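Notes from hallway chat w/ T.B., transcribed later so I don't forget. T.B. wanted the structure written out for a chain they're using in a teaching module, and asked if we could keep both sequence and structure tokens in one place. Agreed to drop them here.
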Amino acid sequence: MKDTDILIPTSTIGSYAPPSWLCVTLEAIGRGELGETDINETFDDAVRAAIADQERAGVDIITEGEMRRQDFVLGFYERLTGLEQLPAPRTQGPDGHDQRGKWLPSVPLAAPDGLGILAEFEFAKNETTKPLKVTCPGPFTLSGRIQTGGIYKERLEVAYACAEIINTELRQLVAAGAEFIQLDEPSYAVYPDRPEEFVKLFNHTVEGISAKIGLHICFGNYRGRAVGKRSYRPLFPHILDAAFDQLALEFANREMAEIALWSEFPNDKELAAGLIDVKNYYVETPEDVAALLRESLKHVRPEKLAITPDCGFSQTARWAAAAKLKTMVAGTEIVRHELAGTSA
């Protein structure tokens, strides 16, 4: 079954909650206590667990959970050549974005062995029969921790270098059978003063990619905290000129603020509406989700609407993530029956 066959399909954004045993094992890997086979089995099983939780919840379009990645983007810097890690500006106190360091390039950026997303997809596609969405950090977000002032004078220059690397990875994904690829660009909302530049960068990144393209824009979720002013309005209507098929935005933790942007700026793209708050340990009821979905349908046609959590679940406990997915699906099913005129 393809996602086009499903009315108001449900999906995750990308990352899934790591099992507790994975967190413990990652510490052991860092101490050098596991062999290569041990490590591979650990990550394989973590992906299987993420897929199983999504399938048990009844999610329509799943992801592999980003279980092999370190953080949202940090692990990718290990795959880029010529980068020296710089110390974080702050190491003590409450967790925050300023506790992540930067990387200084000594040569032009390259990823001779790829970003590793192709291998993630090739494993995951054999672990499920459901439609699979592949996620990839966008070039502007990926460029965020790379120091400028040397080889690269400013951030957009770094981003375009990342775009070439990402485009190569996306082409390989399509060749391997990927049909739905989502680029994650929270940094668009953090620096909303240049939407026209973001459109040019995004379109360059996905040039020649024959797949359904998604774009996810949030406000950051490091340790459950946002990093930017939580408003999409500065990006509209310019962002609609980007070559994506589906735009994923967060609404649940903002009490549905700015959902009306979709009717204020009419377009023929799909909206993946975030109706599950990943930063809150209140588990929404199916009725909660149905109410938010009905509000969304005031602005989006049902055939152009998908439902997701606000953001990835990597910062959420697994028990909460699993429970939230189940109620997301149940609430969506309530509204599907209402639209069809049938009883649940």
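Follow-up for T.B.: The longest helix spans residues 318-340. Might be a good example for the class.
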